[in-house]
Amino acid sequence: MSSILNMTYEGDHICVGMTGKSSNQNSMELWQKINDFCKNYNCYNILGISEMETPLNIEDAYNYWQVFEKAGIDTGKYRIAWVEKNLSTKEVTKIVESVVKNREMVSGYIFNNVADAKKWLLNKNG
Q1: How many CB atoms lie under 10 A from the CB of residue 26?
Q2: I need a labelling partner for 72 at 20 to 30 A (CA). Which of 35, 36, 51, 66 fits?
Q3: What are phi and psi of 26, to 5 degrees?
Q4: CA angle 99-10-84, nearest 5°?
Q5: What is the DSSP string of 15-60?
Q6: Which residue in 61, 64, 60, 62 sits closest to 73, CA to CA?
Q7: pLDDT tens for residues 78-96?
Q8: How many CA atoms lie within 13 A of 73 on its CB side?
Q9: What superfamily in CATH does domain 3-122 come from?
Q10: Residue ranges of the domains in the chain?
Q11: pLDDT digit string (tens) for 52-77?
Q12: pTM score > 0.85 for this model?
């Protein structure tokens, strides 16, 4: 895997940090590890903080639902608040957001900063 993934359990959410190169294979490995971590702690609130070096290619972004499906992130119990710090990859990340939300796989949004992401994630009515 050419991405670096750090995860911590914060009591009411999982904090995921990652950097590296985006690819379908890396995404699959990342989300499988995230899913295993969530199951281990029985916590499905995910705060993602990403600074990827390269965006996914557009075709992979439109097919990202398959990554979530294969990794088991398709039950509807996941709440994902994601922050992509690299502005050059954010546009493609927004496509991924639309794809998985349109398929009702998760509840989640892309945020501009960690404070707003965490506020939404921990608001049960959000």
Answers
A1: 19
A2: 51
A3: -65, -40
A4: 35
A5: EEEEEEE--HHHHHHHHHHHHHHHHHHT--EEEEEEEEEEPPPHHH
A6: 64
A7: 999 999 999 888 889 999 9
A8: 30
A9: STAS domain (3.30.750.24)
A10: 3-122
A11: 888 888 999 999 999 999 999 877 78
A12: yes
